[in-house]
Amino acid sequence: MPDTLTPDSTGPDPVAPYTPTERTLPTRSRGRASYDRDLVHSILDAAYLCHLGFVRDGAPVVLPTLFGRVGERLYIHGSTGSRPLRAADASDPGLPVCLTVTHVDALVLARSAFHHSVNYRSVVVHGVAVTVTDPEERRLALDAIVEQAVPGRSSDARPADAKELAATAVIRLDLDEVSAKIRTGGPNDEPADVGLPHWAGVVPLTRGYGAPVPADDLDPAVAVPDYLSAH
User: What does CATH list as the number for 30-188+221-229?
Assistant: First the structure.
């Protein structure tokens, strides 16, 4: 989604890095952490599935869900009956959450079991999620969530009607307390293990898309759109 902020937000300096906090400073492998704004955005924009963590009835809960980014804000949607979305509406000033996104880029196989790892790109966002009530921002948020998964799709589908909008809740999480973490490269074997007769190296992983499968009731005259073929 383009870096376009919602009408009521001026946003932070779009160039300055995010400010590290106690919660965004890793306890180990600090050299892999980054607060670069463009890097964080690129990791978020390459995903459409996040994990949203919060506390419910004194116990931790983590839910996988779709999201969309608009500038320095993330949007998540769900049913108005969803407990976390109701909590974001009822609590003041909102619902404390932790949102994560992770891409696994490769398996890293070392000579010792201890040094096996993965190459990855991840983002962790801490903050307080609040319910979006402004009609214009709600529509922008829902379009952003669709665009995050399939760019070009939001303008090629019927918008939500009044009944659907009434059944849909949207929450917003500002990108304020944020960090990225990345691992690249090969295995970090102990010098004494280098001569062991075990294969070591990297197994790259790639994300792919299959050919689109039309719905059973789709009119055969409706062609696969170009934005979908591009996948």
Answer: 2.30.110.10
